[in-house]
Amino acid sequence: MFFIHNRVESIASVAALIQRLVPKARVVVGHGQMPENELEAVMLKFVRDGADVLVSTTIVENGLDIPRANTIIINRADRFGLSELYQLRGRVGRSNQRAYSYLLIAPGASLTPIARRRLAALKEFSDLGAGFRIAALDLELRGAGNLLGTPTTRTHQRGWL
Length: 161
Fold this sequence. Notes:
Structural class: alpha/beta
Largest sheet: 5 strands, parallel
Number of helices: 6
Number of strands: 5
Shape: globular
Helix content: 25-40%
Radius of gyration: 19 Å
Distance between the termini: 51 Å
Strand order of the largest sheet: 2-3-1-4-5
Order of helices and strands: EHEHEEHEHHH
């Protein structure tokens, strides 16, 4: 199982809480600020079934493929972007086992309308091939940005439009 907690400062205390709640669970912690050899040892331990729970930052969204991991719990899911949540959810269900994804928000938290739409979209777009629809909605929610500058800047500098 993956438990995603995207705050390095408090990740050890979250892992300790999980350990207290489930004393028989073998819990390990991994994040991108760890020394490379230490992070590799943690990941190998988890991959080789030497740990039951990997408490981690979002580093697991980058191509980690562990078929036996069929559950992901994302702490403070309201703080993540839609594409990021979709990528994280994609880390489970990579085998013939049924996969589970739990998105946690703080008790009594007031969600913004955009956060509500992001979380609702994950529930709605759960079928195979939903990635394009997720990406389109994410673009709509976040906006396209100004990678090329403002329209007036582009027009005057390059003669576009």
